[in-house]
## 1
Amino acid sequence: MNNIEIINFATTPSLVSRYMRELRDVKIQGDPMRFRTNLLRIGEIMAYEISKRLNYTQESVQTPLGKAMCHEISDKIVLATILRAGLPFHNGFLSYFDNAENAFVSAYRRYKEKGDQFDVLVEYMASPSIEGKTLILVDPMLATGSSMELGYRALLKKGTPARLHVASAIASRQAIEYLCDTLPQGMTTIWTGAIDPEINSHSYIVPGLGDAGDLAFGEKDDA
């Protein structure tokens, strides 16, 4: 029995709904700064919601007039991102988890000579130890789920986290099902702005929004 929690922000209209609409709208997508800002905003909102699941301790704080008891996050957080599309999304989480350690994984598709078949390759990783920590792994697009899963496997070289949060702006139903089968049970929560019904023959999410990396940073030369 699957024991991974799925949080789909599309089921309850909120500010995320507005930013998701702008991410998808071809009339608005032409502004890279606005596209990056919307990813950042969604990241901030998701970071706030994830913060409700963390552990806290109480601390006494001296004010000019006395002492106040305040809550402080006790979890050690590592914020990890799949390059390159994940960078503005990552910055949204980092705005709120400003004391988090950071990790970066380069996972990309390498297409075969003919057709739409591809392999997902991980060529670079920079990460602190994640042993016993809360790992928040973010990537705006979960099409097949392969890049996210391989990114997580690569990070396991740095230890085993106590808790895993996976966050995306848009996921396909196929990716959700794949990650529910491959990510650790009982310690994983998947957060997404929307779950779209399918991927096409090129493994892009439909209706999706296109290539998040290109929209955020410009087209790349795949030659």
Note: The longest helix spans residues 32-51.
## 2
Amino acid sequence: MARKIVFTSGKGGVGKTTICANLGVSLAELGFRVVLLDMDIGLNNLDVVIGVEKRVLFDLSDVVSGRCRVKQALIQDSKFPNLYILPSSSGKVENISSSSIKNVVSILDSSFDYILLDCPAGVDAGFHRAVFSATEAIIVVTPHLSSLRDASKVLTLLNQYHLEAKGLVINRMRGDMLLNGEMLDIQDIVRTIKLPLYGVIPEDDAISRSCSVGSFLESVESARAFTLLCENIHNGSKKVYDCTYKYRGLMGYIKRSIRKRV
């Protein structure tokens, strides 16, 4: 039986889709069979982040409407053969209900180790449609008060579902600003959201570049952060990436000073 994890945030633009995609890659690299479900109907872009948008023949709407089977809509990644994506629909959503999504997830359940659902931003019907089929949830936040406020609202809604586990991922953390006291502290964020910390992802231009061109991370630092996140989720370990290490000591102080001036 697959672990069914929904990625949500409340606030848009926090990097939720990027986290979902790169975690899927990390799990696939470890040999797990992973399928990514784009639940952002109408504003779907998970296929673009993965880089398979030109290979889409069928989407979630086609599956739900009976125009194709689930297997026909799945796209296998060319670089990671254990990774699949079920693209979302860019059209109408009337025929896509929470129950229909759960039926699709049930079909995939026996064929995969992980089913990762990329939830749309906000807390409207799209949010509930995505969470309905999940057994676990990961809230993605950035170290900003507005993001934490939205995440708290999302957590209140998630508590209405019988989820087996909920965790927190902090994205776009800058080690230099953290050491300078210019960014919310990690432990303060954890105390605010009151969820187990699954991982910290650093602010990294390589992540933005990879998402822009539909490729995966080649940055050693960010790749390491996602590897630790993957291990924490799968093994229950608690190794969090230290985004401050290269800004410590004399050379680190110089780097912080230069970046601050920039």
Note: The mean pLDDT is 88.
## 3
Amino acid sequence: MLDNLADKLQNILNGLRGKGKLSEKDVDVAMREVRLALLEADVNYKVVKDFVKAVKARCIGEEVMESLTPGQMVVKVVNEELSALMGEKEVKLNLAPTPPTIILLCGLQGAGKTTHAGKLALFLKKMNKQPLMVACDIYRPAAIKQLEVVAGQVGVPVFSMGDKISPVEIAKAGVQEAKRTNRDVVIIDTAGRLHIDEQLMGELIGIKEAVVPDDILLVVDAMTGQDAVNVAETFNENLDITGVILTKLDGDARGGAALSIRSVTSKPIKFIGVGEKLENLETFYPDRMASRILGMGDVLTLIERAQTAIDEKNAKELEEKIRSQSYTLNDYLQQIDQMRNMGPIDELLSMVPGINPKALKGVSIDEKDIKRVEAIIQSMTMKERERPELIDGSRKKRIALGSGVTTSDVNKLLKQFKDTKKMMKKFTDMEKNVKKRGKFNMPFFK
């Protein structure tokens, strides 16, 4: 996510960090490089111009120049201005005081409206809401069927009236159906076009006037760069949108749309799509995104992902097992599965403050490796999983044969498990020492 821009900005700012004193010339040189990095990331030209001007004004002021650590202060200024550029704080959905809340999704064809209708429905279900999806795309072949498939995957009903009734009438009837069945959120999936035209806008305006949505969310593809910003501007002029869902941000090496949309339209990015799975929809936090771009980590998002992926009861049971040294290969397998559910390992590590993103290039956990580990452990007896020390040469051969791997692969897994168990014991010992003495004592380094 925004890898190229992040690399460039971090390099520029690292060049300032080490300086004991900054001159106006140092700031000028750095800002020229920042301007180029942002333009290469396809950030809107006017947005770049205003951003660089604001940062420079603050950097040549007393706040930075008279600081004991001017380089660090520049980083702080850039972080704050980046966050402000994207909206400073997250903007939540406009939930109606009297249900149902009506959410109208709009956008060009291919932006991912139908998929993100499903993602949004799942997101709302996790908020203990009961969504109803309304199929108003009557033009694209199999659009209604696609919505029904997506809805089925997240366990949400779909209201449709086929492709012969006007989308405006379907939207009105859908809202009535939600009231009748006590559904507290209506998500209206509308038609898109390959380009913006009068028919598309007229239809959307008609739906808006008929059902008066609480939120009009524009779904735009981050991969289209500056075009995404232009699309957002046009939809906003016609519909007065309330927010944006920016899709495919995980695949956008440039990221200009994320940095431009708020400034150009004055409307917030409310959600970002960060993967293909229906769980891969996140609230957009401008301050957290700014920190990640500048290599300062994103601990809050990391914690939230962990809380979503890891069952609290299981986590407490695992903690007790680690303390009592009764951690088994079954627990090891469960942990690997939970980590996999949290997202790509390089993305998770990039959220940890202090980790150099460049060191993460190419770091990944191959799905084949995970399946190999699962196959090896599942080829063991329950007794072997509980007590790996029982696994001798003949057992290793049997396990390797049963899982379709070599005895070398079995040995490698057993060593990884042993090392993991040792590391966990060390952390447990550290915690005990902290509690006893009120300070760190690391006996394993003696």
Note: DSSP finds 20 helices and eight strands in the chain.
## 4
Amino acid sequence: MLLTMDCETARSDLAPNAIRMSGSGPADYKESARSICGYAETAATHGYPVTFLAHPEVAVENADLLLDLQDRGACLGLHVHPYKLRHRKYRYDLGAYSAGEQTRIVSEAMQVWESALGSTPRYFRAGYFSANDQTIGVLNELGFAGGSLSNPGRFLPGHHSLWAGAENYPHRAHHQCRLTAGESNFINVPVSVAFGRPVGRGHAGEQGFEWSYVPHPYDHAAVIRNVLERFVVDKPRFPVIVTDSHNDQEYRDPDHPARLNLGLILRTIMDTCCRMGLRPEGITLDALCRLVLEDAS
């Protein structure tokens, strides 16, 4: 079980174009901190660690909190919507840009993140899972060890997020084709999608499949059961359920819809695994990437 959260720039920091492109994110960094804490606390009550993929602005404004969570076992990584960066130079999602432009965008974000948190980020996810066939090579060259880049089956061309036919389990990525496994040392860990539950329009407007995006009002129990049943058929080397959320949900409120969804997801994993004779364990993105790389060596 790999619980992730994309920690988005506060809306108070965003230009109008950024708000049009992506409405996710907390009103301010106090709301961000509450959401991050609530997600971590809820996960901890079930024995699971969390991976936080933080936009550079969140790394700056919530630095003490993120570092404290890292000390307690969380994995920290970098999250980037180019148009949400504070200098407001970019207008599109990462997959819209060439390799050279992506290198510049991600390098700028890395510098801010590193200055705030005192280390270089080594794990990555772009907003909307936006990428093109140059992205993995760029990330590898910049020193990233892995990330959660893909949402298999997603078709969201307006955000350059095209993942039809993508590999759906953790794998060594291909330098020149984002959809397939390869021989690079960059490990990609896709989010978990329910291939038995197609949707014509998801929460971001995409075509694809229901997936473990915690705030969305999917039937999360059915999503989890579908993913777990596929594990039995596919017998993947690394059967992992990867969820996602944003830092604009009130996870400390036991009656908040996202908190209820998260509880349902975690209970369904436990109950379904018990019936299937499986034993669920929590893991962070960095630990899983190391396991995949070692296994393939």
Note: The chain has nine helices and twelve strands.
